[in-house]
Amino acid sequence: MDKPNPLQAATPGASRRNLLKTSAAVLGGALAAPLVARRAEASDTIKVGSLLDLSGPLGSSGLGMYQAIQVGVEEVNKAGGLLGKQIQLINYDTQSNIQLYSQYAQKLALQDQVAVVHGGITSASREAIRPVFDRYKTLYFYNVLYEGGVCDRDIFCTGTTPAQTVQKLVPYALSSWGKKAYIIAADYNYGQITAKWMAKYTRDNGGSVQSVDFFPLDVTDFSATISKIQQAGPSVVLSALVGSNHTAFYRQWAAAGMLHKIPIASTTFGLVDEIHTLAASESDGIVTSYGYYQEIDTPASKAFVSAIETKFGSKIPYISELSCDNYEGFKLWAAGVKKAGSTERMAVIKALETGISIDGPSGKVTIDHQTHHVIRNAYLAKAVNKSWDVFKSYPNQFPSDTAAVCNLIKYPRTDKQYVIDVKA
């Protein structure tokens, strides 16, 4: 049964008052955006916003990301800043709370009047704040690996997508261990869509999927699932579990004596510092594919790791793709500001759309105009004695999954996340 419309039930006078209030709110938002932009341009500093979970289930990931962007800001400021101004970084701890994401996004856009925001970890957090930044015309960088499909000219996504990493991980797992896969994933859009990609790449490579199981982010008891997997007897477990609560799976898996019986390939393991928090006996042999590992043996990677260790000490979270993406996302934005000669949103967007590249810790990273995603390296690595053995690299990987649904060159006014039709 439909709920009654409160405007229809109200008196004519009340309806008119509601309409006027609504119209005023919309008009206020429309007028606020250019006003905020002018004030930001006139400021003595350039304000950069950061929205990251520094506490809650994703706090370990957010802490590393925050440390990385602080290093990036410090490097730019020591080099003279941007456009003759110093960068002021403003961060709010979103505490793994979607309501706080929305609240602080408005504060950054309207009260702090930042030139850009780098933030969000889960796709749910991104989709909570992306409309806010679209409304108030605030440039937004989402610097996290994710399921792909975002197509919005006001946002740049710098993390890897499934076509860049999952497409490498699954064929390796099947060719190494066998063709029967059992998929476990977090029960929200990242896990649900990534599980579809896992299933597609499994079937594309001659394999079969025995089961796909989803788990809410607060689940910590996996005993029933482990028994179910044991009975199924797959060749490999493909995991897209997310957050510190789901780390319990790997500990319980090892405790059940399964770590060296059925191998695990994961799109997320290590992003909440599991490589440090778990014993080697609980993680050795797990294979992942990311756009960055701190063990990458290049001068740029070594300098990045050294800068973070120098600033924050050696007892820091593992420097994962999340940290690297946030650092490189900030550096890409800074390169766009320099090219544009302005922090004004559209000027920076147009500068970035020329295909700006940086040489970052992960290698060469290039903005793709069509998708506002990046062309970047991907790697395969295996957990060995609380570290990553990076054994394979794939240079210049294109976000072909998102490119299949997004073309901001032809349709620059697009503003949505597409659910990519994953067909096996």
Q: How would you explain this protein's 3D organization?
A:
The chain is an alpha/beta fold. It folds into two domains: 40-161 and 296-378 and 399-417, Rossmann fold (3-Layer(aba) Sandwich); 166-290, Rossmann fold, CATH 3.40.50.2300. Helices cover 43% and strands 21% of the residues. It has 15 helices and 16 strands. The strands form three sheets. Strands 7, 8, 9, 10, 11, 12, 13, 14 and 15 form a nine-stranded mixed β-sheet that branches. Strands 2-1-3-4-6 form a five-stranded parallel β-sheet, with helices on both faces. Strands 5-16 form a two-stranded antiparallel ribbon. A hairpin with a 2-residue loop joins strand 12 and strand 13. Helix 4 (98-111) runs parallel beside helix 5 and helix 13 packs across helix 14 (345-352).
Keywords:
2 domains, disordered N terminus, 424 residues, 43% helix, 15 helices, alpha/beta, 5-stranded parallel beta sheet, 9-stranded mixed beta sheet, Rossmann fold
